[in-house]
Amino acid sequence: MLPENLNKELIDSMKAKLPGGTNLANLLMDILYIGKEAVYRRLRGEVPFTLSESVIISRKLGISLDQLIGKSFNGNALFALNIINHADPLDSYYSRMCEWSDTLYAMIRDDYSELDTSSNLLPNFFPMKYPVITRFLLFRWMYQQNLINCIDKDCFDKLTIPDKLADKQEELSVNVQKITKTCFIWDKMIISDFINNVKYFAGINLFSDGNISDIKFNLMYLLDDMEEIAARGSYNNGNQVDVYLSNINFETTYSYFRSQSVEMGSMRVFGVNTVTTQDAETCAYVRNWINSLKKFSTLISQSGEMQRIQFFKSQREIVMDL
Q1: DSSP single-letter state for residue 119
Q2: Of the residues 39, 105, 140, 194, which has the fewest C-beta atoms closer than 10 A?
Q3: Radius of gyration from C-alpha coordinates of the chain
């Protein structure tokens, strides 16, 4: 059962979420399948909601239990470790993609949604329309964790992305562009660092010439898309995109997601893994940190034309030298 202060926070949050004219007691009877008197004992605080009841309520009404706990226990915040299971990495990665898809779907259902991200690596959710880049990010992580057999040469070809994972990645690529307003802050070394990784694996004979050509094609395609988005300041559907180039390097990738029903901060760890939180105070720290990086950055979307042209020209030259 919930502690008294947390139980009160849950009741207050339910009342705040309900549209005018909705009877909270009747709603709880419908979603919890308990009697009227049992509901009123909970609303009066005589009997706390159980953990399972709280989970059902949070899902039905879009209430963040993380945020409630943060309010009830000062100085604490809950984080979700979205770590891929080494025993079955591809299925585990697919499960993570499904969770991201659910979060994005909840965001884009709202009238307004926002994504801010500062990246020192290509974002997990952005290059998913470029399948070889996505496969390489997974391959590099699996190689580092000894999860792929690389005794033979050209073992990159042996990593096959399941159809369900490819479909989910494509769905994410489409839905991320439905976010109302997006801000990308890129470390200027984001492409160079990626290329250096590719060169390393090519140097130890884990890539074929065909793999290198595919990666170059995907990178050029990505740069073409990003330059077009930056010049226009929006996706093809009209949703706003601000693109900044940072003049300092980042230690990791931070992302902040916000809509009417979702607020979440994310930090990239251990390659393709993330740590996320819905704690309001921590989300504010993440958002403020990302915004503070604009001090060291140049806006190249719908402005900074010379810097934009020079950046993308130099990145294409780096890719062509691969």
Answers
A1: E
A2: 105
A3: 23
- pTM, 2 dp: 0.74
Q: What is the DSSP string of 254-307?
A: EEEEEESS-EEEEEEETTTEEEEE--HHHHHHHHHHHHHGGGGEEE-SSS-HHH
Closest by CA position to 253, among listed 194, 180, 167, 317: 194
Both structure tokens of 257: 């997601």
128-142 pLDDT, tens digit per residue, is 678 888 888 888 888
- Are 6 and 58 in contact by the 8 Å Cβ rule? The answer is no
Task: Determine the pLDDT at residue 1.
Answer: 46
Single-letter amino acid code for the residue at 247: N
Please report the DSSP string for 182-213 in residue order: EEEEEETTHHHHHHHHHHHHHHTT-S-HHHHH
Distance CA 6, CA 9 (A): 5
Q: Produce one character per residue of 247-260: b if its CB has 16 or more CB atoms within 10 Å, e if not.
A: eeebeebbbbbbbe
